[in-house]
Design brief:
With 569 residues, this protein is an alpha+beta fold. The chain contains 18 helices and 30 strands. The protein is globular. The two termini are 31 Å apart. It catalyses: Thiol-dependent hydrolysis of ester, thioester, amide, peptide and isopeptide bonds formed by the C-terminal Gly of ubiquitin (a 76-residue protein attached to proteins as an intracellular targeting signal). Pfam families: UCH, zf-UBP. This is Ubiquitin carboxyl-terminal hydrolase. Its EC number is 3.4.19.12.
Length: 569
Amino acid sequence: MVVVGEEVRLLCTGTACTDRLVSVNSRVKKRGIGERTRAVEDGSGKEGEEEEEDDDVEEARQRRSSCEPEMSDHGCIHLNNFKAAKGIQPYKVIHSYFVTSTSTEARAVSCLCHTCKTYKDRLHSCLHCIFFGCYVKGHIQEHAKTKKHFLAVDLCYGNILCFQCGDYVYDRELLSVAKAQWSESAKSLSFGEFYRAWEPTQIEAELLRKHPRRRRVVENSTIGLRGLINLGSTCFMNCIVQALIHTPLLRDYFLADRHHCPQPTRCLVCEVSHLFQEFYSGSKAPLTLHKLLHLIWTHARHLAGYEQQDAHEFFIATLDVLHRHCEAAPILVKDNPHHCNCIIDQIFTGGLQSDVVCQACNGVSTTIDPFWDISLDLGTAAGASGSDNSGPPTSLLDCLERFTRAEHLGSSAKIKCSNCQTYQESTKQLTMKQLPIVASFHLKRFEHSSIQDKKISTFISFPEQLDMTPFMSHRRNGNNNSAMIEGLPKNGEDMTFSDNRYSLFAVINHEGSLETGHYTAFIRQQRDQWFKCDDHLITRAKLKDVLTSEGYLLFYHKQILEYGRNSKV
């Protein structure tokens, strides 16, 4: 807390916090500091009143000091005292070696909680001594209490935690150190400079002066909700557009005017950018997507025509066209030649690891392929042994467990092992090597066979919050279990400090049969407000309605993002 004149500035360093000013409601302010000073100087005013006011000031000061962090005009007192005694070198060392370290192996070997020997649960480093402790399990708190070391560094973001203040604290000098080291880390990894905060140009500043009206988005605001006109069996397109428009990170990208193109008339990204502006203009009138439909038909000709299309097929085609139309040539990401840095790959692309294990010599052949979505079977499938049958799944977690289960390929699918150079039976297992920011799940409800085509209407439950950690490569692959030390992969493989929890933000449903049907969508607006989008009609919905719906396409967004770590979003 920093006192500025007669106001108190509360500074919150959390990811969703902003600075806000809170007026001091005390008798000192009511009477006026200036008036009191003049009364003392000219001798007016009674002595008893002055003494009473001094008592009020002292009482207010004591109340504040007993319940608020010890912050001065120059930040946290405890951090300032530490800097005066030891300087900023301890912070620079911790930030350089463990926060912005470009060596994953070095971080994996060193960054373990000294108490529980794991690397997860919000690891912190003591600023006073060599100690790593996890915050969630309270081990860094125990160390602070026992050793009286009240300052720690969050190893994910580099923020300073003061246990005496009871919060993360701001320090301008250390922030400059962190920014410089992030910049150096980015250069060493060939990421280039990170994006800075928006500063209006002269033209933008002039536009702001000409249009001073500002819109305030409140908690129950419905800005961003627009119905979409059905152009004739185009409900599949309307649902996909609603899901994309309400993808949080995609929304932030386009509303920040990050896309610039020399050929806007033929560019799908330009049209999507225009749609975002229309959705958030404040108008409630339904929109017509004739131009977007024309661009899709032009660049994905297999979808041309007014007959009903599959929403999943349209989703993949739309991502593909958007990917191709992103500005400039894609810059390939280091260690992944299939992954570029366009906004679509930044948000939707993950890495799927395939491990084929020879049953004769246990040799492993591993490949990693990019994916935009995960298609999950709903019918009865062969078990891990290949002989017995397991029943159909009843939940999204069942589907993911079966998707990442080792499968015996059988004698009819022998492969030549690169290790023993003979044709042998093998097992194959798919796992998540790298998770995307937006995880898209396709429940395969339409089954096509030589005998008949049918729709699977089995209810599949899906959660509002989803943790993908159990399906990661280092957790799921049984062949790597011996390399694990309390959940830590050997040699730093898959070593990350990211959180793998997701939140549901859109669900697309198909109502009807395989031959005739209609698509609708549930989308999340603001925090926990849900709406049902049925073409031009938008109605409020309850979370229960969403979670009990049939579900065809499920969209989850990562809860915690590491901005600036290795992406440009």
